[in-house]
Design a protein that fits this description.
The complex is a heterotrimer of chains A (127), B (114) and C (249).
Chain A (H helix, E strand, L loop, with lengths): L16 H32 L1 H10 L3 H28 L3 E2 L2 E2 L2 H24 L2
Antiparallel strand pairs in A: 1-2
Helix pairs in contact in A: 1-2, 1-3, 3-4
Chain B lengths: L1 H33 L9 H10 L1 H31 L3 H24 L2
Helix pairs in contact in B: 1-3, 3-4
Chain C lengths: L3 E8 L9 E8 L6 H12 L18 E4 L2 E4 L12 E5 L6 E3 L2 E2 L2 H9 L23 H7 L10 H5 L1 H5 L6 H11 L7 H8 L13 H5 L6 H26 L1
Chain lengths: 127, 114, 249
C-alpha cells in the first residue's frame, strides 16, 4: 500500500512553544556541567592558600563574573524548578484510595530545598 | 545488553539532577555574590580551608560534583540526537559519558590533592 | 447567510498525487459545531471525495484524531468557536504514514499494543477455576491503576511525542501506559513478560519526559507519568536482581 511519510525537520523544536522550552530545559544540563568545573576551580583555590583564595574572590567581583553567575543561576534555577515540579509525577503515593495530590508533594520538595539551602549557608557561614 | 545497562545510567542521571537542583542554586548565590561581596560576614576562608581537608567533606563533594557530570552526559546526549545528530549518535554517546568519566577523574584528582 | 469559516484540509490521493496538497473550503460557522461537524459538512455538501475516520462524535472512541492548527486533537471535541483566527488547518496525525487524505496508517501502534500484552496474565499455576469465583480487588488496589484504564487508543500522544516523530521504533506513550495499567493491576502477574518490550532499548529509556503526550491526552491518562514510574520500578528491579544474585552465591 502506497503511503506518504510526513517529513520531520530538525527544527521541530522551534515549531511549538512547549517543544522550545523542553529543549531549553534539557540544555540547562550544560550549565550544570559548567558549574561543576567552576566548583573544582573554587575548591582548589580555597584549599591552596589564603592568597589564592583572595585572588579568586577579587576576580569574582568583576562584571563578567557577575554576569556569568546570573546567567548560570537563571538556567540552573529553571532546571531546579522544572525538576521539582516533575517529581510528583514520578513519586506517586496513595493513602488507601486517595492519591496524595501532586501539589502537596511538590510543596514538600520545595520545603526540603529551602532546608538544604539553609543548611549549606549555615555550614559555610556559621551560626 | 542495553537493557541491563540503562537503569544504572538513569540512576546516575536522576541522582545528579536531584543534587544539582537542590544544591547548585544556593552555591551559585554563595560563590557569585555572598562570598565575593562579603554579604554574609567575612573570615570564611578558615572554615572552608579546614573543612575541605576533612575526608567526609571530600567524599560528599565527590558525589556533589561527579553525579551532576553524569546528569549532563545523559541529558545532553539525548538532546543532541533529537536535534538532528542521530547519524553520529554513537560518537555522541562516547563523548558524553566519556566526558562525565573524565570529569569524575578530575574531581578525584582535585580532591586528592587538597 | 451568517458567517463562515475557512478550513484548509490536507489532501492526498495515492492513485493520483505524488505529493499531498492543501484544499480550502468555506464552511458555515455555527456556535455549537466542532471541527468534525465542519468536515462532515465538506463531505456531504462540498467534496464527497474527502476521506477521514470518525465514529462516536463524543470523545470516547478515539477514531477522529487529527492535527488541528498543528495540535493533535479529537476533531469531535475541537469547537470551531475556539479558533478565532477564522482559518483552521486540518492534517492527519503526525508520526504516522498517510494512507489517504486524513486517514493515517495505525499498524505500528496496533503492533506495539499487541506486543505489550494488554490483558491480565497469570502465572502457570496462578489461574483460578471459574467455580472458585472472581479475583477480588479492593478500591485502594483499583485506585493504583485506574487512571491508565481510561486510554481510548486515539494516538494523540504519539502525535505529540517528538521522540516518536524522530524514531518510530519507540514503543510510545499509550502502549507503555497500557502495559503499566496491567503491571499495576493486583490481579495481574505478567510484569516480567512485558519487561522485555517496556524496559528494552526502544521502551521507556528512549523517553526524555517531554511531557507533551500527557498534555494532549483527551482522557487525562497521563502516560508521561506512567513511563517515568516504569523507569523507577525497572531500576529498582535491576538493583533487586543484583542483590539477589549476590545472595545466591
Amino acid at each position: 500500500m502506497k503511503t506518504y511519510q510526513i517529513p520531520v525537520s530538525n527544527t521541530w523544536w522551534l515549531k511549538k512553544k512547549s517543544y522550545f522550552f523542553f529543549v531549553i530545559r534539557e540544555m540547562t544540563s550544560l550549565f550544570v556541567a559548567g558549574y561543576c568545573l567552576f566548583l573544582l576551580v573554587f575548591i582548589s583555590k580555597a584549599a591552596e592558600s589564603q592568597q589564592a583564595y583572595t585572588e579568586l574572590l577579587v576576580s569574582l567581583k568583576s562584571p563578567v563574573s557577575i554576569l556569568l553567575h546570573l546567567i548560570f543561576l537563571a538556567f540552573i534555577l529553571y532546571h531546579a524548578i522544572t525538576w521539582f515540579n516533575l517529581t510528583p509525577k514520578i513519586m506517586v503515593l496513595h493513602i488507601g484510595e486517595e492519591k496524595i495530590p501532586d501539589g502537596l508533594i511538590a510543596v514538600s520538595i520545595y520545603i526540603g530545598w529551602l532546608a538544604v539551602s539553609l543548611i549549606i549557608l549555615w555550614i559555610i557561614f556559621g551560626g | 545488553m542495553a537493557q541491563s545497562k540503562e537503569p544504572v545510567i538513569w540512576m546516575l542521571f536522576s541522582a545528579g539532577g536531584m543534587i544539582s537542583a537542590m544544591v547548585f542554586p544556593v552555591l551559585l548565590l554563595i560563590t557569585g555574590f555572598l562570598l565575593p561581596f562579603e554579604l554574609a560576614g567575612d573570615g570564611t576562608f578558615e572554615r572552608i580551608h579546614v573543612a575541605l581537608k576533612h575526608p567526609l567533606i571530600k567524599l560528599i563533594l565527590f558525589f556533589v560534583i561527579s553525579l551532576p557530570f553524569f546528569h549532563w552526559a545523559h541529558r545532553f546526549r539525548f538532546t543532541l540526537v533529537d536535534i538532528g545528530l542521530k547519524h553520529v549518535s554513537l560518537m555522541i554517546t562516547v563523548c558524553c559519558y566519556g566526558g562525565a568519566i573524565l570529569g569524575s577523574i578530575l574531581t578525584i584528582i582535585v580532591l586528592w590533592n587538597i | 447567510m451568517s458567517e463562515s469559516i475557512e478550513l484548509e484540509i490536507f489532501r492526498y490521493c495515492p492513485e493520483k498525487d505524488a505529493e499531498p496538497l492543501f484544499k480550502s473550503y468555506q464552511v458555515p460557522f455555527r456556535e455549537d459545531w466542532v471541527v468534525l461537524d465542519a468536515i462532515n459538512y465538506i463531505k456531504d455538501e462540498l467534496d464527497g471525495t474527502l476521506s477521514y475516520r470518525w465514529s462516536c462524535r463524543m470523545g470516547v472512541c478515539g477514531s477522529c484524531g487529527m492535527m488541528v492548527n498543528g495540535e493533535p486533537k479529537l476533531t469531535c471535541s475541537a469547537f470551531l468557536r475556539d479558533y478565532s483566527s477564522g482559518k483552521i488547518r486540518v492534517e492527519p496525525l503526525q508520526g504516522f504514514p498517510v494512507l489517504r487524505d486524513l486517514v493515517s496508517q495505525m499498524d505500528d501502534f496496533i503492533n506495539k499494543l499487541t506486543k505489550v500484552k494488554p490483558y491480565i496474565l497469570r502465572n502457570e499455576n496462578g489461574e483460578k477455576q471459574v467455580e472458585e469465583g472472581e479475583y477480588l480487588q479492593s478500591p485502594a488496589q483499583l485506585a493504583k491503576y485506574k487512571q491508565y484504564t481510561l486510554c481510548i487508543n486515539c494516538m494523540l500522544c504519539y502525535s505529540a511525542c517528538p521522540i516518536y516523530a524522530l524514531d518510530s521504533e519507540f514503543v510510545g506513550p499509550a502502549a507503555i501506559a497500557l502495559a503499566q495499567r496491567y503491571n499495576m493491576d493486583s490481579r495481574d502477574q505478567g510484569r516480567k513478560q512485558r519487561q522485555e518490550v517496556i524496559a528494552g532499548h526502544e521502551g521507556i529509556w528512549q523517553c526524555t519526559f517531554v511531557g507533551e503526550c500527557s498534555v494532549v491526552c483527551p482522557k487525562n491518562v497521563d502516560p508521561a507519568a506512567a513511563i517515568q514510574r516504569a523507569k523507577v520500578s525497572s531500576t529498582m528491579d535491576f538493583f533487586k536482581g543484583i542483590i539477589t544474585l549476590g545472595s545466591k552465591e
